Amino acid sequence: MSDPNSDKTLSVHDLRVRYGEREILHGISFDVPRGETLVILGGSGSGKSTLLRTLVGLQPATSGEVWIRGQDIAKMSEDELDETRKKIGLSFQGGALFGSMTVGENVCLPLREHTQLEESTIQIIMRLKLEQVGLAGFENYMPSQLSGGMKKRAAVARAMAMDPEILFFDEPSAGLDPIIAAGIDNLILKLKKAFRMTIIVVTHELASAFLIADSMLLINKGDIVAHGTREEMQNSTHPRVRQFLDRVPEPEVAEEMDYLQMLTGEAPPKAL
Amino acid sequence: MAFFDSIGRNTVGGFAYVGGLARLSGRAAYFTLIGPFRGKALRWSRAFHQAMAVGVEALPILSTITFFVGLILALQGAYELRKFGALQYVAGGVAVSMTRELGPLMTAIVVIGRSGSAFAAEIGTMKVTEEIDALTTMALNPVQFLVTPKFLAMILMLPCLTTWADFMGVMGGAVFGVTGASFTFGGYVQATLDALLKRDIITGLIKAVMFGAVITAVGCYEGFETGGGAEEVGRSTTSAVVMSIFLVIIVDLIFTSLFYLLGR
After folding, report:
1. pLDDT (tens digit, 9 = 90+) per residue, B66-86?
2. 3-state secondary structure (DSSP) of residue A98
3. Which residues, 6 or more positions from B36, have their beta carbon under 8 angstroms from its beta carbon?
4. Which residue has better confidence, B99 or A207?
5. Which of A108, A221, A106, A88 is nearest to A152 (CA)?
6. Chain A residues whose beta carbon lies within 8 Å of the beta carbon of residue B139
7. Contact, B158 vs B212, CB < 8 A?
8. Nearest C-alpha in A relative to B134
9. Quick one: average pLDDT of B9-25?
10. ipTM of the complex
């Protein structure tokens, strides 16, 4: 924690990810200073989910570097990667709680598997984590008995079980009503304030993004369009940023000939 | 051309499938046999739960089925044997068929239906709900965490279930022996023991272990190969059952041929 040289918890250099023939991320670079919250914005199919999967080591990078805590995870073996994974937490979009275990067991699982702590200590940590996300007393519920918002909170508690240095969120407010979504935003702000955790959030919810972000990153079709603070994004004149922030839909097919070709399935002329 | 193209594609696909199974089994075997010596603990309590589900809970249905199979074998055998006035050979026929072939095979079929499909559905659902990814990000290897306990449970329980199936088959045969072929119960059991060689039982149990490995590998592999959506879980469950039955028959053929050649 006290290494003065590693003020950047996460650093990405020229990251490229390819699925077969198709390149999803075309050379992405950015840094996240310790204790900051970065919000990664992007529309559907922009590559933001692929970016998140690569950052946590679920998707191997085709080329480039992903530095987490001073180590390049793109060049790590599976065993080394596991050591890094113990220091990061990921809260999945749907919670991804293990359906066969109670909420409490879900939170206890990483502690039981990776630490030598006494069972009584593990129980205390588990209650503490559940209390921090506002789910005190729910440890004996099964995930299926929880509402959507509670599942996400429980997932956050599980992601925090090992006291991670970086916490990732995949679409934290997707599918939640505005009140519950605001509750999740507050939770993120609280975690940031209380634990000075580095937090990376992938979302397309603008209101939530402007509330929690220190800096923001807009991705479009696998490239970074803009990267800056809240204010810089708000005042940006970049057409793509404006389109995203002002919620302007993609223009519809204007040319009648193009439309005809689209319907008939014939390739458009080379000039287009 | 399209015909040869599809033959080529299917052949390559088949090899890729078997390769995938081998890779998964290899990793499960690594975590079962070598992992414990490298600080990756075996999950005995999870394996125990699996063994209960795979083994003990299968006993009622397996007992019923193999009991009737034994009885059917006796009836079918007697149909031929009585032409030669050789009804006393029914006991031996049932015993050898059960231990060498039908005990392991019927056990495998029941276990495929109960557990192979369940493995695919469990892992498939976990894949769809991102629980597999969650395991990985929590530095828990999904193969070690999910497959190894199943693997361990299956290769321990299949021989046990098969032994029980052999026994129930003989009991089924005894029903015909006593009621239809003038055996006493004790006489039928004695005739069974006289007819059986140690080799018959052992070859059956070797097959059972192999079937256990195949069923686990296919069930788990199909689970991991599940794409997105609930429909896909159904598809992988179906294909786990169909592929398991097919591969169990192939493995059975290979080992039966092997034992035939070795036993000459």
Report:
1. 999 999 999 999 999 989 888
2. coil
3. B42
4. B99
5. A106
6. 82-83, 85-86, 110, 113-114
7. yes
8. A96
9. 88
10. 0.84
Residue among A64, A76, A5, A72 nearest A34 (CA): A5
**Cross-chain residue pair B134–A98, CB shorter than 8 Å:** yes
Q: Which residues 6+ apart lie within 8 Å of B65 measured at CB?
A: B106, B110
pLDDT of residue A3: 44
User: Which one of B128, B138, B144, B145 makes the best mutation probe of the A interface by having the most chain A beta carbons within 10 Å?
Assistant: B138
Q: What is the DSSP code (8-state) at residue A47?
A: S
Calpha distance A212→A199 (Å, rounded): 10
Per the structure block, which two tokens stand in for A178? 């505005």
Q: CA–CA separation, B197 vs A16, rounded Å? A: 64
Nearest to A56 among B125, B131, B137 (CB): B137
Q: Which helix (H) or strand (E) holds A167?
A: strand A166-170
At residue B251, the pLDDT reads 95
Which region, left, alpha or beta, applies to residue B41 given φ > 0 means left and ψ of -120 to 50 means alpha? beta
User: Quick check: A248 contacting B, CB < 8 Å?
Assistant: no
- Count CB pairs under 8 A between chains A and B: 49
Q: A20 CB contacts (<8 Å, ≥6 apart)? A: none
- Report the top-level CATH class of A34-58+84-250: alpha beta
Rounded to a whole number of angstroms, the distance from the CA of A136 to the nearest CA of chain B is 23
Question: What is the DSSP pairing of strand A88-91 with strand A63-68?
Answer: unpaired
Question: What percentage of chain B carries pLDDT values higher than 90?
Answer: 69
Element (H, E) at A170: strand A166-170
| Strand partners of residue A23 | A18
Task: Reply yes or no on whether the pLDDT at A1 is more than 50.
Answer: no
Q: What confidence tens digit (pLDDT) does each residue in A226-235 have?
A: 888 888 888 8
Residue B177: which of B165, B168, B186 has the closest Cα? B186
Band (pLDDT 50/70/90 cuts) for residue A253 is low
The answer to whether B28 and B147 are in contact (CB under 8 A) is: yes
Question: Can you tell me the mean pLDDT for B131-144?
Answer: 92
> For chain B, what is the mean pLDDT?
91
Q: Give me the pLDDT at residue B250, please.
A: 95
The two structure tokens encoding residue A112: 């039981």
Cα-atom radius of gyration of chain B, to the nearest Å? 21
Report yes or no: B73 and B97 within 8 Å, Cβ to Cβ.
yes
> Is pLDDT above 70 for A7?
no
